[in-house]
Write a structure and sequence with these properties.
With 209 residues, the protein is α+β, with helices and mostly antiparallel strands. Helices cover 42% and strands 17% of the residues. The chain contains six helices and eight strands. Strand 4, helix 4 and strand 5 form a beta-alpha-beta unit.
């Protein structure tokens, strides 16, 4: 006859062997490894960890201006781009035709996007009266408004009713453009970045001359 072995007994035996064979340091590293693995599997903590990692890496990513030959001019036709915004009326991109524009494509579910938003908020507080900030998303207004209110962000949000035109087309989030008064894309950045920096302020200062 085969003796039935209870599953819990097997687990207990394995734990006893693990305690006996592993040093204190090895036990600590084992526990930390499994905790990290569990956190990465569970969606909520996974997003928090990913956002934290992005915040660390973006500190060394400070965008500058593109060289003159790489600065693309936005065609007049592309200024016909129409978006929606919180004022429950259409927003015409042509309204910022002669403004310095900070244009950021993002989403609440995007960890790199969430990581750089505090940087953008600080930049907005310093330059929002001189530079036109546009945070563009294709999420539902209800989701975005709840997120912005919870985080205390004040930047205006615009909603895409149609794909971004020509020069402003992008394939990843976040993607950020800084546009001059002459309609030139002077900065194009894929991924999170340290926007609240002296480098960005120098770009604004140059464009606002």
């Amino acid at each position: 006859m085969h003796e039935n072995t209870h599953p819990m007994a097997t687990i207990k035996e394995r734990l006893i062997k693990w305690k006996e064979k592993r040093s204190t340091w090895q036990k600590v590293t084992d526990i930390l490894f499994w905790l990290l693995l569990i956190l990465l599997v569970i969606p909520g903590p996974r997003k928090v960890i990913a956002t934290g990692v992005n915040k660390v890496f973006m500190q060394v990513k400070t965008p500058g201006m593109l060289s003159e030959e790489k600065q693309e001019i936005i065609p007049e036709l592309d200024f016909g781009w129409v978006l929606a915004w919180d004022k429950n009326e259409p927003f015409y991109f042509s309204d910022v035709r002669e403004e310095v524009v900070f244009l950021n494509f993002w989403a609440t579910w995007c960890s790199p996007c969430v990581a750089e938003l505090p940087e953008i908020q600080k930049l907005y507080e310093k330059w929002g009266d001189k530079v036109f900030f546009m945070l563009v998303t294709n999420e539902s207004p209800e989701v975005v408004k709840a997120f912005m209110e919870k985080q205390g962000y004040l930047m205006p949000v615009f909603y895409q009713a149609s794909p971004s035109p020509g020069v402003l087309a992008h394939t990843s989030l976040p993607t950020t453009f800084i546009i001059s008064r002459e309609g030139k894309v002077v900065t194009r950045k894929k991924g999170a970045a340290k926007w609240n920096s002296r480098a960005t302020e120098k770009i604004f200062e140059e464009l606002l001359k």
